[in-house]
Amino acid sequence: MTTGRRTTRWLLSRRTAYLPDAPSMPLHIAVLQDRFRAAVLGFAIGDALGFPLRGLPAPALMRQQPTADDFASRPRGGFPRGQFSDDTQMMMAVADSVVREKRIDGRTAAQHLSWLWQEGTVLQPPPSATQAAEALLAGTPWMSAGAPLGVCDPSSLSRGVVVGLSSEPTPTRLAHDAQVLTVMTHKDPLCSAAVSAFACAIQLGLSGEAMSAEDFCEHVSKAAAPHSPALADELYYLPRALAWDVDKAMVALRRVGVTPSHYDFELGVPAHVTPVLLTSLYCFLKSPADFRQAAQLALRSGGEVDVIVGITTAVAGAHLGMDSIPARLRKNVMYAEALVEVADRLFDVKLSRVPVVTAAFATVKR
What we know:
The chain has helices at residues 5-11, 29-50, 58-64, 86-101, 106-118, 127-137, 159-166, 171-182, 189-207, 213-224, 229-236, 246-253, 273-286, 291-298, 305-320, 327-332, 336-352, 359-362. It is an all-alpha fold and 366 residues long.
């Protein structure tokens, strides 16, 4: 993946079809709100589908053949059906801070995030997030509390949903806002790059523009580039994997950006932002018009399966809307009404920034 981009453009001259039925014009206000809801609810649903499977090796998942039709009736750990993990909890906490301030503000986001630990409600967070939250609660400034360079677990990625729904669709703004919401728990710029790329993938769904997989990956690559040119290159060349055998592609992607000495790849996708993000976007691009099929493929990944399915289904939701999500999943995910309310409030914040909004658009019927 080190050849020049001109060569790659020639190699990829056969453009991969991507959302062929998508409109090529700005979305109607009601459709845009629907996609806000589908992105937030989609992440929580994917997280809840994968949470009972987190840490299981990929071969075991191949034998179990988990489905994306409904949540496990008896999840591991004694959690209720449809329960999501700390990833969705952190997404909602950060979203609440944006709603409160009407913008992305690091100090307020850090306060809302650390509150999960103060109240003891966070579910199975990684050590990096716990240490950062404890530092915040002890009075460490939010810009200094995060894990040091080299710590790149994927617990920060869920914030990409909030950045995607709140930030302006430019690489510079995305890079800034992603760093603001990431640095409080992870200082490594690779984490900010991954959050920025995920946010861009969300925004591409909100744009209403039809594009090829190559164009999609070029956009998310540009979003990652300010923080990590290396991740940007991996994202740019991701469409190559779409032509490979699915099983071989999934195995190859889990190895990108990490060294064998640090992870056991046989257990599935390791706890690192690069393979998690690449696997998630690959699963979406394999079935860009089918929410369930994209989730089904992501459930086979193993390892960090909860955040992988969450990213996959958040991007699918942002592109396809609420009707694409199976009704059973929409109904049975925990706190569904609260998730929709969070999405609506983020939508109101976004709408309030439009310079000229007519009275008809200012009041959107719930």
